[in-house]
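Subject: complex prediction, re-run

Hi both,

The earlier run crashed halfway through, so I resubmitted it with identical inputs.
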Amino acid sequence: MDQQQFRKYGHELVDWLADYMQEVENYPVVSTAKPGEIKSRIPSSPPSAKEPMENILTDFRNLILPGMTHWQHPGWFAYFPANNSPPSVLAELLTAGLGAQCMIWQTSPAAAELEEAVMEWLQQMLALPEGMAGCIQDTASTATLCALLTAREKATGYESNRIGLQMPLTVYASEETHSSIEKGVKIAGFGSRALQPVATDDHFAMVPRELEKQIARDRENGLHPCCVVATIGTTSSTAIDPLEDIGRICRRHNIWLHVDAAFAGTAAILPEKRAILNGIEYADSFVFNPHKWMLTNFDCSAYFVRDPGALIQTFEIHPEYLKTGSDAEVKNYRDWGLQLGRRFRALKLWFVIRSYGVEGLRAMVREHLRLAQLFAAWLKDDARFETMAPVSLSLVCFRLNDGRPEPKLQELNAELLRRVNATGKVYVTHTALKGKYVLRMMVGQRTTAERHVQSAWEIIREKTQELLAGE
Amino acid sequence: MDQQQFRKYGHELVDWLADYMQEVENYPVVSTAKPGEIKSRIPSSPPSAKEPMENILTDFRNLILPGMTHWQHPGWFAYFPANNSPPSVLAELLTAGLGAQCMIWQTSPAAAELEEAVMEWLQQMLALPEGMAGCIQDTASTATLCALLTAREKATGYESNRIGLQMPLTVYASEETHSSIEKGVKIAGFGSRALQPVATDDHFAMVPRELEKQIARDRENGLHPCCVVATIGTTSSTAIDPLEDIGRICRRHNIWLHVDAAFAGTAAILPEKRAILNGIEYADSFVFNPHKWMLTNFDCSAYFVRDPGALIQTFEIHPEYLKTGSDAEVKNYRDWGLQLGRRFRALKLWFVIRSYGVEGLRAMVREHLRLAQLFAAWLKDDARFETMAPVSLSLVCFRLNDGRPEPKLQELNAELLRRVNATGKVYVTHTALKGKYVLRMMVGQRTTAERHVQSAWEIIREKTQELLAGE
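This time it finished cleanly. Structure:
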């Protein structure tokens, strides 16, 4: 494909995407494809000769598109969002077109320096402590692994990197913490038994005195408390762990504090919500994902540390073939994480923050918070439903409860969920809270407006009526 | 920014990129920006109000672009390439516009099934053993870490994931192996002292009998040999470790064999070069990067394993909030690697393989091999230079040698490199081979034609003459 064809098909795809953004609402949110259906229609061998782009794009529309679940659909109330936005997509186009691999400063000085600059912007937007330094990671899974590894190294005087982990280090997180914490604990060689789940209160937030008790007990048993992961906005219910109390405990016991605010961090750009990060001055590391709620294409995870030297000491390797004349004067972000290779991810953050402005991003978050409260109020007025967790941000956890026993309630709500999602108009997911099956209504898609939340509520009521009547 | 503006600026950027592809040759390959220069021109605080896209794009052109090192420049002879291509850029645009997060099958069935299909295509293209299964990782660093972790778990009966690494496991790689191996060994908790560098021969390839000796010695010392990393195409000289001999040793001693062919793997699509993978039937895992030499935008690393069950058992975690009704019937690739979140990377591979066809990709690789041989022949005819390693693929390692002592030779060649790169026409990098400072002429950029290699050779000769005359 030459430049002229690139131009032609590029224009075609831009137009197609502009239409898609407009029309995505008309697609079923979740693909109705059956397992194996798409693969069965893809030739089992690669073509020997080149194929015209027309054919590829036709197949894209006829074969791939019906197999997509549409994360940018305004009826997306599932998981957490992974929002893109028009300026972010444009930046991704440029990133792909430039095709720079940003492993070190010299291989793309603008990428390295723009990353430093936009991380400082985010630091200000969230009012993170001065002196923290940030870099972009692919996902919060990776950022949390970086935190665990740096905590491991600091706790062992950087000896684990050399001789392996020879001490029984322990890690603490609430029982509501994300699965990536356990995954990181396994990868970093702590072993999952080193992960001590801390009890949560009625609001699903970590109980600091339980944390302190466990630390004391582990110390007595000859274990070495190494790291606490506090979650600001848990996946199941956006519970907010009490950072100040946890932070003071960590400080007192000289334990690394990692704060995982993957989804909720974006809310801290609102002055009226910044309190969710009270106590962040105790954090050794902090992660939140602009690729969730800050309109920046997946992947883009913002990772901040108090001591970049410790991070670099954990990861730095300097083979001859990567040495450059400027190494002493610049930041080489390859030493700030796991991967050597790095995409130019700062560009899309820069496009997004400038295109919306901080006030524009705040307005979007405020609207999502308002819509979630609205939905919660409707729920409250309908005696068939109960709210299962505080609506601290824009997630509403609820269930249908007509008084039948718990296992039957689970079946009832799972069936309700199935029927609601089968409409193709909305996508809601579930979780478990203290053993109870719960529906999660997550309001956070960029294009979700009041009418979409209203429509979701109508669908939920309609399917509830059908379900209760039909039994 | 609404859809109409997206359309407008999308078209503008497509045109700009089409021009850029044509004109990139006119830019200096390596940015001439000074450390700190770009950041000093970026406002230190984010804008409160939104800014018009015109301003952002103007800044992109005036501020960011001069700070880019141009990886898609035909004068790119540095490191390894990170090639993009027009169809790959178009696919990246679609991936960004769809904005799907492909962590599990249900959140994007087409992404999961297309990934499975294109991995099977690659498997056929490289004639990998039947029964291997592949998935896309971000980078070879990550893929190798996955291999080390799976090897660790298999060697310890999946107990390290639970109790940490309690046995002294050892890992073997040639002394020419990539830095990511040491990084992975540290991250996975082996400790860097567990990594045993194996001596190389005159061609910088691992000496199998040295490997076997070390394994025997380590066994005697109570260590547990766990994993061998063989490199097909080392970073410094594209040396090819003898896979068959290494594989037989691994099989005999029941040691995991990981094969790192990050750059060179693409060459195996040529029937006449497939021999570089002879012995691959012994491999437990194999990685190569379509984002290097197969025209697929960074990041896209193809990771194959013989036993997907072992990989999944290493990484699987199944929290309630990620359970879906189709889990028993489908591949959920979140369990095939470190990160939970995943981009739709299969799309660009599909676009590339279909747009070029296998024969089109072969033609490109063959031309690079031819050009490297041409360059090597010119070098051979000029008595001032010596070739420092076999030209097994498309990398030529050489230096200027006028007989002065080694430390002075290093200075001489470093100065030659500086002057060659200062022209802005080409970008060549260096390495060390058995302690000697060596220049690396890597021919692998998609748009590099004979005239570019010829021009590089002219520049090298001209700067050599200047340098020797001016001393």
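Residues 92-351 of chain A form a domain with the Aspartate Aminotransferase; domain 2 fold (CATH 3.40.640.10).

- K.
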